[in-house]
Amino acid sequence: MPYIPKWIADSMENLLPSKFLNATVNSCVYINHEIKNIVFTADLKEIDFYPGSAVNFRVSANDFRHYTISAFDREAGTFEIIFHIHGNGPGSDLAEQLKVGDNIKITVPGGRKLYNKEKRHHFFFGDETSLSFYAALMREIKKNGQSCTGVLELLKQNIDVPLGLGFEIVTVLKTADCPGQSAISYLQSIDEKERDTILNSIFYLTGNVASVQGFRKVLKQLGISSKNIIFQGYWAEGSVGL
Questions:
Q1: Are 153 and 129 in contact, with CB atoms under 8 Å apart?
Q2: Are 150 and 123 in contact (CB under 8 A)?
Q3: What residue spans in the chain does CATH classification 3.40.50.80 cover?
Q4: Mean pLDDT throughout 59-65?
Q5: Which DSSP string do the residues of 197-228 spell out, in sequence order?
Q6: In what order do the strands lie in the sheet with 35-41?
Q7: Which residues form the FAD-binding FR-type domain (predicted)?
Q8: DSSP string, the chain
Q9: By the number of CB atoms within 10 A of the CB, which of 19, 29, 91, 190 ranks highest?
Q10: What burial letters (b/e) apply to 121-131, b meaning 16+ CB within 10 Å?
Q11: CATH 2.40.30.10 intervals, the chain
Q12: What is the tens place of the pLDDT at every residue in 142-175?
């Protein structure tokens, strides 16, 4: 829900209290100047969670933005989100301004259940906006004794962020003029033995829509069935509030 009239937004908060959480900022840590990890506290006793769960923040009178949860602890009453502070919108501005002790109302977690627990091998593709989902997905994959590999396309200033977060994943530079190409080149460079394993994976394609579409096209050319490709676009050039 990117943009709705103010009176509808007000009514949703007032008339549907069960659909919202009152959250408090517990801690804020900058991984670098663009990536910020925020821990929130809330009453989570009756709240469901799965990798890919997202919450909506009301970032202005008319605007909502959704963000994926990276970690969730029902007993402790805490959840975390890894924000990309890009400075190009109200969601980014809100995330930058949030500080310890701030109270904020958000929607209860929801969205698609993306994780396929039946698959042994998993492959992840994304960018800065995908970090939260990757963190949640990896935690579930490791818990179930499965394997995961993948590639993140990142801006130059963020290329070391995954290492700072403790992620084991290949990183490549994002190319504005050809979205996804660096990640596609990496996929095509993998040796034949490793590629056989990868081609038997479930694929999670997230982040920039143009990059995801290019990557998906190559996967299909390699014979990957659409049923083994999970698509979740988080943003697109020229689109507001995707």
A1: no
A2: yes
A3: 121-235
A4: 75
A5: HHTTSEEEEEEEHHHHHHHHHHHHHTT--GGG
A6: 64-68, 54-58, 103-107, 20-30, 35-41, 78-84, 71-73
A7: 18-116
A8: --B--HHHHHHHHHH-GGGEEEEEEEEEEESSSSEEEEEEE---TT----TT-EEEEE-SSSBEEEEE-SEEETTTTEEEEEEE--SSSHHHHHHHH--TT-EEEEEPPBS-----TT-SEEEEEE-GGGHHHHHHHHHHHHHTT-EEEEEEEE-GGGTTHHHHTT---EEEE--TTSTTHHHHHHHHHS-HHHHHHHTTSEEEEEEEHHHHHHHHHHHHHTT--GGGEEEEEEE-TT-S--
A9: 91
A10: bbbbbbbbbbb
A11: 6-107
A12: 999 999 999 999 999 999 999 999 999 999 999 8
Encoded tokens for 128: 């800065």
pLDDT of residue 90: 84
Question: Under CATH, domain 6-107 is a member of which superfamily?
Answer: Translation factors (2.40.30.10)
Dist CA 89 CA 87 (whole Å): 6
Q: What local confidence, expressed as pLDDT, does residue 98 receive?
A: 96
pTM: 0.90
Contact call for residues 161 and 131 (beta carbons, < 8 A): yes
CATH 3.40.50.80 matches 121-235: yes
Torsion angle (degrees, nearest 10) of CA 79, 134, 212, 96: 40
Burial class (CB in 10 A: 0-12, 13-18, 19+), 238: exposed
